[in-house]
Amino acid sequence: MDIAKEVLSSSDSLDWSFVASKRDVSIFSRQVADESVQQVKAVTVINAGLENILSHLTNPNRRRGKKDAVFESKLISTDESTKFQVLYRAQKMPWPLKVRDFVLNSRVIKKTNGTAIWAVWSTTHPDYPARDDRIRAWCKNSSWIISPITSYKSNVIYIAQVDLQGSIPTKIKNKFMTQEAMWVADVSRYFQRQL
Questions:
Q1: Per-residue model confidence as pLDDT tens digits over 45-75
Q2: 3-state secondary structure the chain
Q3: Average pLDDT value for residue range 75-88
Q4: Mean confidence (pLDDT) of the chain
Q5: Cα–Cα distance between 151 and 154 in angstroms, integer?
Q6: Residues sharing a CB contact under 8 Å with residue 176, sequence separation 6 or more, in sequence order
Q7: Shortest CA distance to 158 belongs to which of 136, 130, 180, 134?
Q8: What is the dihedral of CA 42, 178, 184, 57, to 10 degrees?
Q9: 175 — phi, psi (to 5°)?
């Protein structure tokens, strides 16, 4: 699977529908054939260079913000030469939902035009089997496309499609995905505070 090609193809697709614009982030959604959960896209400009954004995003110990639901995050393995990581994450959900967890592949891909892609997708790992007290969610794609505008400003596109699994109605899963797109605003705010 060429993850970079898949991510760029999703981003460039013409079937995105505008959802909202909040905190300088434009949010779009689309329904992908044979998928129950919609895909979301968030677009913004972040006042930080590409390398700073990548370093922040790929840090397995970073917190997403004050309301970060991720309470367990472990780097299972890493390969610096290929920029490939395997991660485990568990996150709280609103009551009455059970905790969701993920085993994720993560890879940074740098394109010749200066754009970088941080792609994340679900996998399995023998040391992290599904647990009875958690529901294993499935991340089809959660990727950041970062294109430098200047050395201190970048155009950022975040694309995600995550199925929380379990007995959650699709409408609620899709609402969660739209809220998930606002992660871009949290990253932008983090760099604004650094100025």
A1: 999 999 999 988 888 776 655 556 778 888 8
A2: CCHHHHHHHHHHCCCCEEEEEECCEEEEEECCCCCCCCEEEEEEEECCCHHHHHHHHHCCCCCCCCCCCEEEEEEEEEECCCCEEEEEEEECCCCCCCEEEEEEEEEEEECCCCCEEEEEEECCCCCCCCCCCEEECEEEEEEEEEEEEECCEEEEEEEEEEECCCCCCHHHHHHHHHHHCCHHHHHHHHHHHHC
A3: 88
A4: 87
A5: 8
A6: 162, 164
A7: 180
A8: -110
A9: -65, -40
If we measure between CA atoms, which residue out of 105, 128, 129, 109 comes closest to residue 117?
109
For 157-164, what is the mean pLDDT? 92
Amino acid found at 181: A
**For position 1, what pLDDT does the model report?**
52
* Segment 88-92 long-range contacts (CB within 8 Å, at least 24 positions apart): 88/125, 88/128, 90/134
For 128, the token pair is: 């992290």
* Residue 177: per-residue pLDDT: 83
Compute how many other C-beta atoms are within 10 angstroms of the C-beta atom of residue 95: 5
Mean pLDDT for 158-186 is: 86
User: Does the pTM exceed 0.70?
Assistant: yes
pLDDT at 7 over 90: no
CA dist 51 → 5, 48, 94, 184 (Å): 21, 8, 34, 16
- Here the tokens at position 21 are 């614009």
